[in-house]
Amino acid sequence: MLDLDALRRAELGDPPHRWGYLPAAMASDAAAELRESFPDTGFWRLHKHDGEKAMDFRLRCVVPLGATEPADPESLPGPWRALAGELVSDEYREAFGAAIGMPLDDHLLEVSAWRWGPDAFLDPHVDIPRKLASQVFYFNESWDPAWGGCLHILRSSDPGEVAAELPPALGSASIVVRSDSSWHSVPPVRAAAREPRLSVIATWQHPGTDSPFWTVEPDGLVRCHARGSERAAVAA
To answer: Residue 131: beta bridge partners?
Structure first.
């Protein structure tokens, strides 16, 4: 599914703000299959202001932090179990390390699916220090930037200082390497959007850190522990 050669060849900006965009991060047929089977259950709504940024969207755990198997695999369509298998592979770990220019060794991977309905947004922010870098895969077949919902790479905390606008185009992916200057945001999805904004985030964290979102219970169930989260009645 994943185009690991394209990932290894990714061109990232220079420090202190390293980011990149892959127009074709996976095979087109695989991207279409994942879009058609995008999960619509098991989501949590996260609606809060954490003192730095405000946010409102829905997310579902696909692979818990540091795990080698997907969460609740019986509820995941086959293509999604296959995607999870590729993301936890040594080949993906090596390719992403090559893209950002450092070995991942003992770094921890977490994978979540995100659905952004009308008015969903993420204010300007830099990622938390426990995060090393992330790759976001997108699954919208035709997205008009006038609908909002594009990833904005920012020159500062000012939402108007946009260095790049990255649309959530089917099969594409963005890469953001965390730094104290890696400002980015997602402006609100407007009501004119004909579909939810769909994405999957593969996040690499430093060894010994905990997930900012997910707790795996003794019975294997996963819950969202982030402040402001609640089980979503619907996935829209």
So the answer is: 205
Phi, psi of 63 (to 5 degrees): -130, 120
Give the model's confidence band at 30: pLDDT under 50 very low, under 70 low, under 90 confident, else very high: very high
pLDDT band at 192 (very low <50, low <70, confident <90, very high): confident
In a domain, 221, yes or no: yes
Q: Cβ–Cβ contacts within 10 Å for residue 125, how many? A: 17
Question: Rounded to whole angstroms, how far apart are CA atoms 18 and 4?
Answer: 19
Let me know if residue 15 belongs to a domain.
yes
56 has a pLDDT exceeding 90:
no
Residue keyed to tokens 């997930």: 211
The domain that holds 32 is classified in CATH as: 2.60.120.620
Asked if residue 236 is part of any domain, the answer here is no
CB 77 within 8 A of CB 197: no
Q: Where are the alpha helices (DSSP H) in 88-127?
A: 90-100
What is residue 109's predicted lDDT score, i.e. its pLDDT? 98
CA dihedral sign of residues 142, 42, 110, 55: positive
